[in-house]
Amino acid sequence: MKILLASSEVHPYSKTGGLADMVGALAKALAHAGHEAAIVTPLYRGLREKFPDMRHVDWYLNLPMGSRMVEAQLWSLEPQPGLTIYFVDQPGYFDRAGIYHEANISYLDNAERFIFFSKCVAHLARYLPWRPDLVHVHDWQVGLVPALMVQQHREGWIKPPPTCLTIHNLAYQGVFAPDTFNLTNLPEEFFGIEGAEFYGQLNCLKAGIAFADRITTVSPRYAREITTEEFGCGLDGFLRNRQGKLTGILNGVDYGDWTTTKNRFLKASYSAARIRGKERNKLVLQHEMGLPMSPKTPLFGTVSRLAEQKGVDIQLGALEEMLSTGLQFVLLGSGSPLFERAYLDLARRYPTQVAVRIGFNEGLSHRIEAGCDFYLMPSHFEPCGLNQMYSLRYGTIPVVRAVGGLDDSVVDYTASAELADGIKFREYTAVALAKAIRKALALYENPTLFRHYRRNAMSVDFSWERTVEDYLRVYRGAVGAA
Ligand code: ADP
Ligand code: GLC
Hints:
Elements: E1 2-6, H1 18-32, E2 36-42, H2 47-50, E3 55-65, E4 68-80, E5 83-89, H3 91-94, E6 101-102, E7 105-106, H4 110-127, E8 134-138, H5 145-154, E9 163-167, E10 175-176, E11 197-198, E12 201-203, H6 204-211, E13 214-217, H7 220-225, H8 236-240, E14 246-248, H9 276-288, E15 299-306, H10 312-322, E16 328-335, H11 337-349, E17 354-358, H12 362-371, E18 374-377, H13 387-393, E19 397-401, H14 404-409, E20 423-425, H15 430-444, H16 447-459, H17 464-481
The structure holds adenosine-5'-diphosphate and alpha-D-glucopyranose (GLC).
């Protein structure tokens, strides 16, 4: 099949979270399985210098944004056979220091930036000589693409390909003031209760849910959760009415990047059979983070956006209580200044036990996954979550709250003593998380059982080869129906 994907982030070109990993890996896996994939993504600052093989495409975009026209150029890269990345070059919108914000303040023109980007996607879907069989858009930034394509169909595009929307996180919907709808140049009827309108505002994700032929989300459990009031972020009813076209597919892992052997970010290679390298990585990590190098001290870690979603408040509470046991904890993250300060404060008060790095650091994220004994992910909600799956492969036992993709990807002792590879808790409280950490410490004290968990963890397989089949089933269903 020929699949055109669109996303505001794609690894290794741009990334703030798992969206980038997922889109980059899905496209690679499609190409690897013998299909043709192309991704449209913005040309952010520095990308041309970083990827000098990028080629200018002889193609000018000149698209209406309300009453004015905006131009863009196009660049392309072919990182592997069967995969092309198209970069939309509009310096006014995308040649900036950040992707969505700077110094924690969102760009004021995010609606305009991503409406324009969505128009470029719809335009390319229509006019690229390589005619895609299906257009697969990801998250609110490209949520308007299906609606734009429906309108192009009405205006004479004879057979537009069907569309699929993947919701990576329902909490981010791209909601903007009503007058931004004018920038879409769509007829007023698209701004109705069955379309892009949400309590009088423009809602880009809702438009995608309304007009895409298929909707997927990134784990089976999250697909069920988002149709409930608790997790539906105001769109649960709207999603319930479209349950027939909604599927949950657990993300895969790119084991080419996330590997414990031949990983340029790690000091020592290791595997389930040769675990000594992991012990070395632990000492290296303790040293890098400025903690006492102590092989016997249980080491917990987290790599995360510091947002409410990730359970920061209960994590801080549980750590306060559990640090008395002598455990060590390392954190790499960035986000809400309040949370950043709270972690830095914890590190200041427990300098031999807690180390915190604020910022985004790919290499360190691998070293934390590899060097820790346990990985903490107490999310309030989690559409899929990738770090718990990376932890499993790295033999770092995940301690997770049983929600969304965390519940779908980790096996607890109570579910199967034989297959157990992590620790789960249910209640969203610091007390429940502290209890789970206590279980982790008990596991650590039992080397035979700990080895059993580790072996299970390192052998589970979330590779994309399998996941890609689930997406192809959805694609074929949409193409068949069209
Ligand atoms: P989300 O997409 O909600 O942030 P995921 O678990 O799906 O959560 O994916 C997060 C991805 O972003 C992982 O690849 C993780 O390693 C990476 N990441 C998050 N914060 C940082 C950081 N501060 N430095 C490096 N990588 C990070
Ligand atoms: C979102 C979700 C995360 C998921 C990622 C990739 O950022 O918060 O749970 O893993 O998208 O699908």
